[in-house]
Write a structure and sequence with these properties.
This protein is 40% helix and 18% strand. By secondary structure, it is an alpha/beta fold. A seven-stranded parallel beta sheet has the order 10-9-11-8-7-12-13, with helices on both faces. A four-stranded parallel beta sheet has the order 5-4-3-6, sandwiched between helices. Strands 1-2-16 form a three-stranded antiparallel beta sheet, with no helix packed on it. Helix 3 packs antiparallel against helix 6, helix 4 runs antiparallel to helix 8 and helix 11 runs parallel beside helix 12. It is globular.
Length: 449
């Protein structure tokens, strides 16, 4: 190890403790759990990564992209074991879709890695700087966060996305995927580590957190001082657990209870296209729409056509009484909505739907039930669009566009590490700059205060 390790404590270890831990007579790893040992190795790798120039990190990313393509069969074979186990357990098809890796999807993941190579390296960027009146030169520059822990559910593509973004931004990453994707993640991390190590960078910059039990998650959440930040990606219960129990700082990625509001002044054909795309293009992801709100003045013209279009897409509608009134005119599968439907992230071919009196009532509904992810308005009125974007406080507000565009790749950020629904440090799709912090560099010429 090229750098002395830090203890997972709230305060830095004393010099005496560091000397004793690194002395030849005492191996600091002897009493560590596997998770703590991985975190120590990640800390050392992060120290080595931080000063590296862009070219060396990009070479490692190119090696990763090549290795993913060369070893696709190995990855898909491992993934097939997870898929078989999921089907035996009766896992829903929407979750199995998120879990599945095909050769085409592996190639797409490799392409995403190459997209990251093309992105600017944020490390070293001067955020602001000036010469103070006393002659001191002051610069605020971007630096890596350090060790980033990712806790996520059954989406093995996150393994590569997170590793690529962390590596490019100079961070080491500890990956804790769900047990349902264990074989897939193990194979992917093996490929990633081989590629990174082969390129001359520390392989420990990318590690799978040891263990499949919840104990390893708990230990990761308590590794303050070794892990700099945790990013949970998954359902509401996972995110809630990490936010409430972690003593490591957390960037909260929220669930996606996203809304599409169809205004009184609207292009009905466009509204139907946006609705169906938002809900059904890929319903198992966080930027899929989960609730439809329709202005009462356009309901007669819009709702019957919308219900038929949703039926054609295989979507079940959980309807308020006013939407239910149109169901008999259509071929849609419509059920009465309950209180819980308005707060549900279905991640399936289901959508809640209601007619509202006006735009302000739509905003009122969104403020009450939204998870703060993405809301869309479909309108031909500039005044309505302006008011909606001013009043709705979510990470992304779309005007005449699908909710499915809330995505780091779609925004041109490269593969995202998550979509933050909090307001501190990062909000919305998190790309490379969001994986950095800053430090101040003060340069004087013998200045004293």
């Amino acid at each position: 190890m090229s750098h002395p390790p830090k203890r997972p404590l709230d305060v830095p270890p004393s010099p005496v403790t560091l000397r004793s831990m690194t002395s030849p007579s005492l191996n600091p790893y002897d009493s560590m759990t596997p998770v703590t040992r991985a975190a120590y190795r990640a800390r050392a790798a992060a120290n080595d990564l931080a000063p590296l120039p862009r070219a060396e990190k990009d070479d490692a990313l190119a090696a990763i992209a090549d290795a993913l393509e060369v070893r696709t069969a190995e990855i898909v074979e491992a993934n097939a074991k997870d898929i078989a186990r999921a089907r035996e357990a009766g896992t829903s098809e929407s979750i199995i879709d998120r879990l599945t890796l095909t050769p085409e999807r592996v190639r797409a993941i490799a392409s995403d890695v190459r997209d990251v190579i093309a992105l600017p390296d944020p490390v070293g960027t001067v955020v602001r700087g000036n010469t103070l009146p006393n002659g001191i030169d002051l610069r605020q520059v971007r630096v890596p966060l350090g060790v980033v822990g990712i806790i996520y559910e059954a989406r093995p593509n996150v393994t590569v996305d997170a590793a690529a973004l962390c590596l490019k931004s100079g961070n080491a990453v500890l990956l804790r995927g769900s047990s349902s994707a264990y074989e897939s993640n193990t194979a992917l991390v093996r490929v990633l580590r081989d590629a990174v190590g082969g390129s001359g960078l520390p392989a420990d910059a990318i590690q799978l957190v040891p263990g499949e039990s919840r104990d390893s998650v708990t230990e990761l959440m308590r590794a303050r001082g070794l892990v700099d930040v945790l990013i949970p990606r998954g359902g509401a219960s996972l995110i809630k657990n990490v936010v409430e129990h972690s003593i490591v700082p957390v960037i909260e990625t929220g669930t996606g209870n996203c809304h599409v509001y169809v205004d009184a002044d609207t292009d009905i054909d466009m509204a139907i296209d946006i609705l169906v795309n938002s809900k059904a293009q890929r319903p198992s992801v966080c930027n899929a729409a989960e609730t439809l709100l329709v202005h009462q003045d356009v309901a007669d013209a819009f709702v019957p056509r919308a219900l038929d279009a949703l039926a054609d897409a295989g979507v079940t509608v959980h309807a308020d009484p006013r939407i239910l009134g149109y169901a008999g005119q259509t071929k849609a599968t419509v059920v009465e909505a309950t209180h819980d439907d308005w707060e549900t992230e279905y991640l399936s071919y289901d959508i809640a739907a209601a007619v509202v009196d006006d735009l302000d009532k739509a905003v009122e509904h969104i403020r009450l039930w939204s998870s703060g992810h993405t809301e869309a308005i479909v309108t031909t009125s500039q005044a309505a669009a302006r008011r909606f974007t001013q009043l709705v406080d979510s990470t992304t507000v779309a005007v005449n566009a699908s909710t499915r565009f809330t995505d780091g790749g779609q925004f041109g950020f490269g593969a995202e590490i998550g979509i933050s629904t909090q307001k501190l440090h990062a909000r919305g799709p998190m790309g490379l700059p969001e994986l950095t912090s800053t430090k101040y560099i003060v340069t004087g010429d013998g200045h004293t205060r």
